[in-house]
Design goal:
682 residues, mainly alpha, CD2-Gal4, 3 domains, two-stranded antiparallel ribbon, globular
Length: 682
């Protein structure tokens, strides 16, 4: 009787776990096992069946083609053909153990079933891998994460316009002396970092301490972040800073700032190029680019192309997916949410000033939450659950409020400024949205005891929010006045709103330029704040020319005079003030001349002539019958009112709200001809 050959024992582990000699948590149902899920090896997770058990001394080999396999009919009869084909296809995907195995990615968590996974390379870069969905299976037919990891580490050659093989020591030599570097870092976190809170301060402090001990050990992307911080921080310095003359040989403060900011921004890109940032990125890469763009925006540069690239880098590392899907800890989750919010804010600003040039990038968001309204010390590494917000103002409150104001600004641009004839209901709805936001600030920033002084940073935040809200009020109600019948109830309401908002903007501008404790925010006073004050000053002059003079109207002249003096003082360090000062001074001298004798017809004619706003054709109104209404009476008083109305409407023609969305959208050259040759170039 022939001796029956003993059957080989089937392995209980899947092939990937058996090859790596690790514990396999074999499920009761079909594969993959939990171990392969956590290691993102789901596509390779297969179990040996009777008839295909590999030899214990040899690793599993890909099967030979079916035409070359010799199998007996008896071994095939008990198997379903579909099951055999599926098993054979799975075995083909088992890697050959005789070949070197690619480096195993280090995922932080199991991939989100419907969105994707994060793949980390050995070099510290990260790639978001979208998870493909199939009608018949929730698992992909290949292993995208290993392919993505290999592609991250794959050298794609030098950056097209630069050399990525830069010596790190050469890059470190571009840094200022360590003492100056630390001072500039502190300036950034005191001023810019307070308003654009993208970084987690304790985490950066730890990284900076490591840099202090071993700068050559820091990743290139982190050095790029440091240079971006330095290039932004120098724009916050003024003539009183000792850092400027110690770091630059230029004579003028404005030239020193320009030289240093350009030096450190160029160094940022040199570090990114050395890190091959077009093909491999991480969150630090994104942080460096976002901070760089924020600084450029506040120095009136254009960042549209850079913003597009940064947006796609954010997509490539998965910032458009809420990080909770990746199982990251609280710090890394909040850093990702802050970066995504920062990119969206920059996009809203750019779209507002240049118009909507493409699809709304917010549509790419996969449910990303806004950053938590918490202080950094409340967000702890390795923490999975965030604490409950206290209700008081935090380091993140300003950014969250500003984000909501940008949403309102986007709605105003879409539904009012771009509308041929916005309805009163739309204007009232936007007005209410702004007022509701203003009301919410009090409960947040004034939540502390009245006897406790508000922290300086919160006072700054509150006043900047106030200024931006009144800028939106001016934009909204200018459009209302331009499209409403003169002296109608809607027109008068909007005129009153414009007067109130303009006065508040001049107050904010005065505060930032006269208080010494606000010197760290001088960059804001010289930039956006001055542009808003310019808008307010020209608006007030238009309002004063539109209404008969009275005691209340005359009270605005000192505010305008003080604003003109501030512009003239700042003209050496602010390009906006350099252009705005002669415009405001010319308009102000004209309106003051008119105020001396409002009942004199020659003075009224002088007003219209000197302001150079008269035109050959009469002003147009939405209602064609309006024009005949204001020329029906020939009395001298009515003539003055009509002349004032004519002047005002021509001013408002050049106060097109679209021009006041941002300093970059202002047609500065047009003012030259309007003011009879007063140059505003430079």
């Amino acid at each position: 009787m022939p001796v029956q050959q003993r059957q080989k024992r089937l392995p209980i582990s899947c092939e990937p776990c058996r090859n790596r000699k690790i514990r396999c948590s074999r499920p009761r149902g079909p594969p993959p096992c939990e171990t392969c899920v956590h290691r993102s090896l789901t596509s390779s997770c297969v179990y040996a069946h009777r008839g295909d058990v590999p030899s214990p001394t040899h690793p599993p080999q890909p099967p030979t083609p079916l035409s070359e396999r010799s199998t007996s009919a008896s071994s095939l009869s008990g198997e379903n053909l579909t099951a055999r084909v599926a098993r054979l296809e799975a075995l083909v995907r088992v890697p050959n153990a005789s070949e070197p195995e690619p480096p195993n990615p280090r995922p932080l968590t199991a991939p989100a079933k419907t969105k994707g996974a994060l793949s980390f390379s050995n070099s510290g870069h990260v790639r978001f891998v979208p998870w493909p969905l199939y009608p018949d299976s929730s698992q992909p037919s290949c292993h995208p994460q290993q392919a993505a990891t290999s592609s991250i580490d794959l050298s794609c050659g030098p950056y097209p316009v630069g050399d990525k093989h830069l010596d790190k020591q050469d890059l470190l030599l571009l840094l200022p002396p360590r003492t100056h570097c630390t001072l500039l870092k502190n300036v950034f976190f005191e001023s810019f970092g307070s308003l654009f809170h993208i970084l987690h301060d304790p985490t950066f402090d730890e990284q900076y301490a490591a840099f202090d001990c071993a700068p050559e050990a820091m990743p290139l992307s982190w050095l790029a972040l440091l240079f971006a911080i330095l290039g932004t921080a120098v724009t916050a310095l003024d003539h009183s800073s000792r850092l400027l003359p110690e770091l630059s040989r230029k004579q003028k403060v404005v030239d020193m700032i320009a030289e240093l900011s350009e030096r450190y921004r160029n160094a940022t890109f040199r570090c990114l190029e050395a890190d091959n940032y077009l093909w491999q990125q991480n969150l630090t890469t994104l942080q460096a680019l976002v901070i760089l763009m924020y600084g450029i925006n506040h120095s009136h540069g254009q960042t549209w192309t850079l913003l597009g690239m940064t947006y796609h880098i954010a997509l490539s590392i998965g910032c458009h997916v809420d990080p909770i899907d990746f199982g990251l800890d609280a710090v890394r989750c909040e850093e990702r949410r802050r970066c995504w919010a920062g990119v969206m804010m920059l996009y809203l600003l750019q779209n507002t000033s240049l118009g909507h040039l493409g699809p709304d990038p917010r549509h790419a968001s996969e449910g990303v939450r806004l950053p938590a309204d918490l202080n950094d010390i409340d967000i702890v590494p390795d923490q999975q659950v965030l604490p409950t917000a206290s209700g008081a103002a935090t380091q993140m409150s300003y950014l969250l409020f500003k984000f909501r104001l940008y949403d309102i600004s986007n709605d105003i641009s879409t539904f009012v400024l771009n509308a041929t004839q916005p309805t009163p209901a739309a204007i009232d709805r936007m007005d209410k949205a702004i007022r509701d936001e203003q009301a919410s600030w009090g409960s947040k920033y004034l939540a502390h005891s009245p006897s406790v002084t508000m922290p300086l940073c919160h006072e700054v935040h509150l006043n900047i929010l106030c200024g931006y809200a009144h800028q939106l009020m001016l934009l909204l109600h200018h459009q209302s006045m331009r499209t409403s019948r003169p002296n109608s109830p809607q027109y008068r309401r909007s005129a009153t709103k414009c007067m109130e908002s303009a006065k508040e903007l001049l107050r904010v501008h005065s505060m930032f330029n006269t208080r010494t404790d606000l010197l760290p925010f001088g960059w804001y006073a010289r930039g956006i704040c001055s542009f808003h004050a310019f808008h307010a000053a020209v608006s007030l002059i238009a309002m004063l020319a539109d209404h008969s003079w009275d005691a209340d109207g005359g009270s605005y002249l000192p505010l305008l005079e003080a604003c003109a003096e501030r512009f003239e003082t700042l003209s050496e360090v602010s390009s906006i003030c350099h252009k705005a000062a002669p415009i405001v001074r010319s308009l102000l001298s004209t309106i003051e001349t008119y105020a001396t004798d409002v009942h004199s017809q020659p003075t009224t004619d002088s007003l219209l002539t000197r302001m150079a706003f008269t035109r050959s054709q009469p002003p147009t109104y939405p209602n064609p019958d309006v024009q005949s209404d204001w020329i029906s009476n020939g009395s001298e008083a009515d003539y003055v009112d009509r002349a004032q109305s004519h002047s005002s409407n021509n001013i408002f023609h050049h106060l097109d709200p679209q021009l006041w969305l941002a300093s970059s959208s202002m047609a500065w050259n047009q003012w030259d001809s309007l003011l009879n040759g007063v140059s505003v170039d430079g």
